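Researcher: Good morning. I'm working through a list of sequences from a screen, and I'd like to move beyond sequence-only analysis. For each chain I'm collecting a predicted structure so we can compare shapes side by side. This is the next one on the list. No need for commentary yet; just the structure.
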Amino acid sequence: MGRGILKRLANSLGQVAARLPDTRRPGNDTKYELQDALKSALSVFYLLHPSLLDFQRAMEKKHRRSNLETLFGVKEIPSSNQMKTLLDDIEPGGLDCVFDEGLRISKLEGVYSKQKVLGGLMPLAVDGTWYFSSKEIHCEHCLTQTRKNKDGEEETLYYHDALTVAIVHYNSSVVLPLAPEFIRNEDGMDKQDCEINAFKRYLERRKEQLKLLNPVFLGDDLYSCHSICSKIDEMGMRFLFTCKDTSHRWIVEQTEGAPFEEYKRVEWDGKNHEFA
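Model: Good morning. Structure tokens for this chain:
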């Protein structure tokens, strides 16, 4: 990613932060601004710090602080606890437009068009990811799992999950993340939220953007189900999902005895030799 692109993304993040409500109570320390906390959080990933603690230690070194101020435009670098205090109350959906701006910038810079495959399709990798878990700390939106500990006693694990979507290419290290869909329990829900339901919501919420992308969705065996595949098909889009034998016995039975035309390609001496 070029420095110019990074600066534009950081500026976009700062503009969004300026519109977000500041929920700090009167009298609390307001030395640090939301945009500085957001830009610092982004830099943790961009500069490849393994943890917030490592980030803070790096910022104690003058040249690393200078890099953060120059690349991201951070004025005051908050500590890890101050960063968490500032960011915890931000509604994640309020940052969706930053992802949209990143996509717009990638088009202007010529990165977007290079990601296309198969005659103009945009490959979108879809997967769920945990970004928080605890046996003690939890909130009303937490998902839960009941597990047995080493003593055989049942215990509850609380966690937060999100459906992540990104433009990828098999021959490129460039990954363009799109706005995620958060998987969380809401008031009035009869059943716990899940990855499949989140994907359905994502398809509905982002259908106008998806039409412009002309996507082919890439995913694991979890998405190889009728409800997801039929919905994507109804929307006129395509998918390539892993289909395991163990979870799709009917497909295995139908294909085991079916006649298929075999095709083999052998390559040697830098030349292709094809045999039917």
